Amino acid sequence: MLDSYQDLIEGLTATPSKLRELLGSPVPDNVSNEARSLLAELCNREKVEVRRVQVVMRDRKARLRPIQYEPEVADPSSAPDEPEAMLQVFNNERSELISLLVNLTLRDWDQKVDHDEKGEITLADEIDDHLTWDEEMQERFETMLA
């Protein structure tokens, strides 16, 4: 079990470097509107995921709605305007998420959560879903920038 949780953390840890390789350092201001949109989504969703993990850890009877219905995810105006700033926000939020996850106990990973669409899931399931989305976003960036 512990290995699978470490694999999740390692997968999440790799993303910022992969994105930096794809987007450049710094991310140019003249990226396409599609890239800006993806960066805003990435930035906003990461903020929401950090908050969701915090909620689950605080409230043992936490209930999660599908992440796409979280208000911050659907609001691109909540992200900064500059592409580099968006990536920095993402990186900061990802660091916060990793910090939360590395400090979890095995019991925390197995914490049951009521999900509006999926029924009962664990915190590990939530993080696995987030990593799957993360990998899909990387693929979208790769395709767009190819």
SSE inventory with pairings:
Layout: H1 2-23, H2 33-58, E1 63-64, H3 71-74, H4 83-102, H5 106-109, E2 112-115, E3 119-122, H6 123-145
Largest sheet: 3 strands, mixed
Provide the gyration radius in Å: 15 Å
Count of spatially separate domains = 1
**DSSP strand count:** 3
CATH topology: Four Helix Bundle (Hemerythrin (Met), subunit A)
Average pLDDT = 92
Helix content: 55-70%
| CATH homologous superfamily designation | dinb family like domain
**Inertia-based shape:** globular
- Broad structural category: mainly alpha
Termini distance? 37 Å
Strand percentage lies at: 5-15%
Q: Give the helix tally.
A: 6
Low-confidence stretches: none
Strand order of the largest sheet: 1-2-3
Question: What are the secondary-structure elements, in order, as H or E?
Answer: HHEHHHEEH
What is the level 1 CATH name? Mainly Alpha
Architecture (CATH level 2) name? Up-down Bundle
Brief write-up:
By secondary structure, the chain is mainly α.
Task: Give a quick set of tags describing it.
single chain, 146 residues, mainly alpha, Four Helix Bundle (Hemerythrin (Met), subunit A), 3-stranded mixed beta sheet, 6 helices
How would you explain this protein's 3D organization?
This protein is mainly alpha-helical. The chain has helices at residues 2-23, 33-58, 71-74, 83-102, 106-109, 123-145, and strands spanning 63-64, 112-115, 119-122. The mean pLDDT is 92. It has a three-stranded mixed beta sheet with strand order 1-2-3. The longest helix has 26 residues, at 33-58. It is built from six helices and three strands. It has a single domain, classed as Four Helix Bundle (Hemerythrin (Met), subunit A) (Up-down Bundle), CATH 1.20.120.450. 68% of the residues lie in helices and 7% in strands. A hairpin with a 3-residue loop joins strand 2 (112-115) and strand 3 (119-122).
